[in-house]
Amino acid sequence: MSDKGKIIEEIAGKIKSGEIQPWKVESVLLEEYGMNSPEHFRTAALIRRRLIEGLTGYTFNYLELPEKPYLMQWRCPKDNSIWHLEARDQDTVCSRCGSQLEPYGTEIDRFRPLANNYIGGSEEYYSYAGQIKVFGDVNKTFTNILAYGTGFGTLGISVGCFRVNKLGGAEIKVSKWAGATRNLGYVFESEEERERGVEAVKEYLPTLRKEMEEKYLAEFSGEIYEVEFVRRQHHGQCYLYICFHTRFEHARGHGDTSAAVGFARGRFDAKFKEMGIAYVQSLIAMGFDGDLKPSPRNRRGRYVSARVKLPISEYEKMSKTNIDSLLTYMEIDRQGVTQEQGHFLYSGMGGEIIPAIYRGTKVNPRPYNVSCTENVYVKIKGEDLIYGVELPNLEAGAASSREGLICPAAREVLKFMGIGTSREFAAVTAAITLAGEFNFTLLHLRGEMYASS
Ligand SMILES: [Zn+2]
After folding, report:
1. How far apart (Å, rounded) are the C-alpha atoms in residues 414 and 407?
2. Residue 122 Cα to ligand 1 middle (Å)
3. What is the pLDDT of residue 425?
């Protein structure tokens, strides 16, 4: 084995035994092994990759590690703007004024890692964020490989997972089915004509529903569990929404549901024509199902919840404050989201944590901010504190489907993490979110968040 190979094995072993923390590898290489900057960034990433391979038994094949996995700092001589660019980036022109950027900082300190705990990836920067133990509906220890974006680092998650594991892990409740919803909209000129339409649909539904399931949903073991009728009006126009709610055990089901409902529309149009029921217009009513718009009507996704339990006295010691401060902190956050927004979307930090998981695993082709909402809560039970997060509508299909491929690097990440099913995806997402929130809350209570001296 080469000298470098030996160093990699040695330090990976020390991280595994807890002797070195994974985020300290860069400084250990510089200070104890005399390695030069910026070459040490690549070795540090290799060490963490070796650690993850050892922990999981898999080998990296697709998640690439660039030759120069670090950023460089530049400055525009004209407007003084500071630029952090990946070392591979050849475009060093200021996009504000067109000037050629100049190196910023000394030859050593103008380099920075692409992300804390970086382990690979060139369009998404992947980080190692420790392991998380879950029990309950899913029993497993997951290895956290997350894609981080602007403004969000890994350390809070790593530390949070460490804390939750020490308390015994996260208890998980995850629902059996994931839901999907798609609506039809029909416009009539009178309420009487609309009622004729409702009667015709109700009569035809048992036959049509079976056909929709066989043609579009059976492939992914999906079913229509409810069809709902909603009546609305707009200045003399009578609307009828026909809402198809579907559920799937393993698939995400959104695209399949859309296809089935599009098929139903054609059938209803023909039925109405045949029966002489006059409608002005028929359409897929996108807005009404909360599609890409989280709303109280949203029935998409799967419910999952994660929580951790500990004695109140232990929490008071950890947070260096009393339990009333925690309850007040939670209430301030709750009021902020429920009263100011009108309904909750993300309480806590989920709006940043959850995308890091979706971006890394790419199990959902939709925008990340609507792939799941989040609710953080605390409860007192006797002498214990329960700290929990619930994700009421987490959307995920861990297998490729007609809704789109999952690229090889993301499939590899799923495998390394230990995710084989959508329920496992749900479990680890809730547990990582819990760990991050738990740690952030502690930092806030201690006054250590955004603190400067
Ligand atoms: Zn400029």
Report:
1. 11
2. 26
3. 95
CB 22, CB 144: distance < 8 Å: no
Question: The domain at 178-289 falls in which architecture?
Answer: 2-Layer Sandwich (3.30)
Alpha carbon of 147 to ligand 1 centroid (Å): 30
Report how far ligand 1's centroid is from the alpha carbon of 318 (Å). Answer: 47
The more confidently predicted of residues 72 and 334 is 72
pLDDT (tens digit, 9 = 90+) per residue, 27-83?
999 999 999 999 999 999 999 999 999 999 999 999 999 999 999 999 999 999 999
Residues with CB under 5 A from ligand 1 (ion): 76, 78-79, 94, 96-97, 99
Give residues with Cβ within 8 angstroms of 421, minimum separation 6: 250, 398
Tokens describing residue 172 = 């998980």
Q: What spacing in Å lies between the alpha carbon of 66 and ligand 1's midpoint?
A: 28
Cα 41 to averaged position of ligand 1 atoms, centre (Å): 29
Tell me how far apart the alpha carbons of residues 18 and 21 are, in angstroms, rounded to a whole number. Answer: 6
CA nearest to 360, candidates 411, 400, 316: 411
Q: Are 126 and 119 in contact (CB under 8 A)?
A: yes
Q: 166-176+301-445 maps to which CATH number?
A: 3.90.770.10
Cα(123) to ligand 1 centroid in Å equals 25
Quick one: tokens of 440? Answer: 């952030």
Q: Which residue has the tokens 């209803």?
A: 268
Q: Which sequence spans correspond to the domains of the chain? A: 1-59, 72-110, 166-176+301-445, 178-289
pLDDT band (50, 70, 90) for residue 403: confident
